[in-house]
Design a protein that fits this description.
Layout: E1 14-18, E2 25-29, H1 36-80, H2 83-95, E3 114-117, E4 124-127, H3 131-141, E5 147-151, E6 159-162, H4 169-181, E7 191-197, E8 218-222, H5 226-232
Antiparallel strand pairs: 1-2, 3-4, 4-6, 5-6, 5-7, 7-8
């Protein structure tokens, strides 16, 4: 409307102008009490409000998607947790604001990620068993050059090959099988698992515990074997 302001009459309740984007005529309602310039400003302010509303709703949708992904990851952990692990999951939900701490309820001491022994008999593989452990393992314990594993596009544990910066294919498979087993795909015959160096992981600002983004990964395909996983567990 601003572009064709010279074509807007005074004391009229509407005007027909060419649409700047489609070159088709469009009829615009006017407030007869306002000048053409004031009518243009009124529409511009309305446009700005709508633009801000769209941005707010877009941000809210993205935030809601992130929350859903996070709660799906918590559900996956709960479905695979033993009794002693549930208290730590509750502590995680308290820290992330989803539930309130009871009066006189003590803060749960956080356990370290679990350790597994690879097939070579010497390489240690760490597995985060909840999102707080995932966060600690990936961003505090792991070295940047170490390899990190996670089931592709589904909730699951962070897995890191510790100390061995040039692991064999067999050790990589061990780590991938751990990531597959401790994921939503545990019961699947074939699970895709992403493998990438820790230094290529990114923690989005304001992201929930355990949430990372990355590009440049390699993807392995493995079948979770409960008996093998049990034999790898370090006491």
């Amino acid at each position: 409307m601003t572009t064709f302001l010279h074509q807007v009459p005074n004391d009229q309740d509407q005007v027909t102008l060419d649409n700047y984007y489609t070159n088709q005529p469009i009829t615009i309602a006017l407030d007869k009490a306002l000048t053409p310039s004031q009518n243009a400003q009124r529409y511009f302010k309305r446009y700005q409000k709508l633009k801000e509303a769209v941005k707010y709703l877009t941000d809210l949708i993205e935030e809601t998607k992130a929350t859903i992904l996070y709660l799906e990851s918590v559900e996956t952990v709960l479905n695979q947790a033993g009794l002693e692990e549930i208290a730590e999951i509750r502590e995680e939900l308290i820290q992330t604001g989803f539930i309130r701490r009871r009066q006189r309820e003590k803060i749960q001491k956080r356990k370290k990620p679990e350790q597994y022994l690879a097939s070579d008999g010497k390489t240690i593989i760490y597995v985060g068993r909840n999102n707080l452990q995932n966060e600690e393992l990936t961003f505090k314990m792991a070295r940047k050059e170490e390899l990190w594993f996670h089931a592709k596009d589904i909730p699951g544990s962070h897995v890191v090959i510790s100390g061995n910066l040039n692991p064999s294919d067999e050790v990589k498979t061990d780590a991938a099988e751990l990531a597959a087993y401790f994921s939503k795909g545990r019961l699947s015959n074939l699970v895709q698992v992403d493998m990438i160096e820790v230094k290529k992981l990114n923690k989005p600002t304001g992201g929930k515990p355990g949430f990372v983004t990355y590009t440049g990964q390699k993807t392995l395909r493995v079948t979770p074997d409960p008996e093998k996983i049990a034999s790898m567990k370090k006491s």
